[in-house]
């Protein structure tokens, strides 16, 4: 009976050591890491697996489209340059008050079809106001989009964001893919 008891204890000890070491192995295999993108920490962070960092696709700064038929995740992130014009003059910082301006966006390296584009402005509190939306009729890898003149009341000192958005299909939502910051001074 004594021999049987020793075998049970030895097996229990071996199994408990194996279980603990497998947990340590699993932790070293998949390590949670903090990820920063454009000065902001991503909410869910990422994982370091075998020396590579993986982050959730929803946290990528671009339009993400899931194509069920092909089983592909398509990330659309064109190169967008935004210029702000008051008349024929480019500007970046403004004083408090109303301003009539338009937004010129140069888009290139757009390698996928999109449905439409939009330009909108966000105030320091996060309230978004649409400036102009337009469908993209012909697929192009580069194009320009200039809004009509738009009057906006910069009534609060702070940082405003002019965003360029794309929509991948008629059913999808707009996703911001670029922004230009306007600083409003007193």
Structure in words:
The chain has 186 residues and is an alpha+beta fold. The chain has two domains: 2-54, no CATH class; 61-185, Immunoglobulin-like (Sandwich). Helix content is 15%, strand content 51%. The chain has one helix spanning 2-29; strands spanning 30-33, 36-37, 40-41, 46-49, 52-54, 63-67, 72-76, 79-86, 89-90, 93-95, 97-108, 116-122, 128-135, 143-146, 150-154, 158-167, 175-185. Strands 8, 9, 11, 14 and 15 form a five-stranded antiparallel sheet that branches. A five-stranded mixed sheet has the order 10-17-16-12-13, with no helix packed on it. Strand 12 and strand 13 form a beta hairpin. The protein is globular, with a radius of gyration of 26 Å. Residues 18-27 have low confidence and may be disordered.
């Amino acid at each position: 009976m004594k021999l049987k008891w020793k075998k049970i204890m030895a097996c229990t000890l071996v199994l408990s050591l194996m279980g603990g070491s497998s947990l340590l192995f699993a932790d070293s295999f998949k390590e949670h890491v903090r990820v920063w993108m454009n000065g902001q920490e991503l909410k869910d962070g990422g994982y370091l697996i075998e020396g590579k960092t993986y982050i959730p696709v929803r946290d990528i700064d671009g339009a993400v489209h899931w194509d069920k038929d092909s089983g592909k995740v398509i990330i659309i992130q064109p190169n967008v340059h935004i210029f702000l014009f008051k008349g024929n003059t480019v500007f970046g910082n403004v004083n408090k008050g109303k301003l009539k301006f338009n937004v010129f966006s140069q888009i290139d390296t757009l390698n996928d079809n999109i449905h439409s584009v939009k330009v909108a402005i966000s105030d320091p509190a996060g309230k978004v106001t649409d400036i102009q939306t337009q469908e993209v009729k012909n697929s192009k890898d580069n194009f320009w989009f200039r809004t009509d003149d738009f009057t906006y009341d910069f009534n609060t000192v702070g940082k405003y964001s002019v965003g360029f958005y794309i929509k991948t299909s008629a059913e999808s939502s707009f996703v911001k893919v670029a922004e230009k910051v306007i600083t409003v001074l007193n």
